[in-house]
Amino acid sequence: MSSANRTVDRLRPFTTTIFAEMSALAVEHDAVNLGQGFPDTDGPASMLDAAREAISDGRNQYPPGIGVPELRHAVARQQRDRYGLDYDPDREVLITVGATEAIAGAVVGLVEPGDEVIMIEPYYDAYAAAVAMAGGVRRVVPLVPDGDGFRLDRERLAAAFGPKTSMVVVNSPHNPTGTVLSTDDLAEIARLCVEHDVIAVTDEVYEYLVFDGRTHTPLAALPGMRERTLRISSSGKTFNCTGWKVGWVSGPPELVGAARTAKQYMSYVGSGPFQPAVAHALEHELDWVRESARGLQAKRDLISTALSDAGFVVHRSEATYFVCADPRPLGVDDGIEFCRTLPERIGVAAVPVCVFTDDREPWHHMLRFAFAKRDDVIAEAAERLRRL
Ligand SMILES: *Cc1c(COP(=O)(O)O)cnc(C)c1O
């Protein structure tokens, strides 16, 4: 057998990721890794205790296919308390192996081969891979600069909807830009979904991590949307436990059922003892999350100032773990090349934003920096950025 790539055509574009390459370079040059989007501190202590307890208590076998009852109830309660969204924990909530499996399950369970799936560019790479696995066709609609932040290109969005559109994937708060979509942008998405009878899948894994007193509005809370939206979230980013892979999807029974059918043969179930621990965290540790979001906002300020002092144009990050910066004032306009040289040059790693896009041109120069890191790590990165 030859050593050529044997991956099927439809998945071949996803063979390698820039994250692996950048992380390897970060290790090689002992760089501060602001490329990867995970926190370097643990979540709430009582949640970690609850996981240890669940293991000691023998909760180590297959959990129920739809997830343990206390977590489904906690997820339903959280959505009712926070957004006034009512979901039946027994029929309208499904626990998944992270948001990633929720996305894959929703897409594979609901998209027919040849169906078009609209996503906002730059997009999280898992959406494109899931659509490819389903044999769907992706249509991208870009975010465009708006002051020092970004907004949706609503004309392009309206033009992307057509007879073959079956789904739109909406990620707000948005990775990689840190944008919280405005109420006008959300209203336009909702209007188009209703007009064209399209399903919305919303990736809201950063729902709690919004800054500067902003609020997050789920698309499902808009008129006409609850019945056509699968709302996805996850414990990983909210509670600093990205390795636990406990996520969930909420929506009307027929949509959750479709995702469940696919999910059943992806993992069947997962994260057994971590499910009750996350239920505990949702019930008892939302104050911890509020503090964490406040801390992230301060980290956003630290890294934004450091980037700006180093000569970047820094875009406004309103939420998430990420901020985008434009290095063109430094005489750089190739983001990929720049990211390849940064670890060796100054000992900092970032990722180029264009790897999250189909149309690379508008994003060619842009870099994403992750700031969910300890203050001393960010301070070290700030120090090194001065070498530019
Ligand atoms: C991290 C991330 C995910 C993956 O969540 P998991 O729960 O770890 O699977 C999904 N969407 C976005 C936008 C993310 O940043």
UniProtKB/TrEMBL annotation:
Its EC number is 2.6.1.-. Keywords: Aminotransferase, Pyridoxal phosphate, Transferase. Residues 30-385 form the Aminotransferase class I/classII large domain. One of its GO terms (molecular function) is kynurenine-oxoglutarate transaminase activity. GO terms for cellular component: cytoplasm. It is an enzyme of class 2 (transferase). Pfam families: Aminotran_1_2. The keyword Chaperone does not apply. Its cofactor is pyridoxal 5'-phosphate. Belongs to the class-I pyridoxal-phosphate-dependent aminotransferase family. This is Pyridoxal phosphate-dependent aminotransferase.
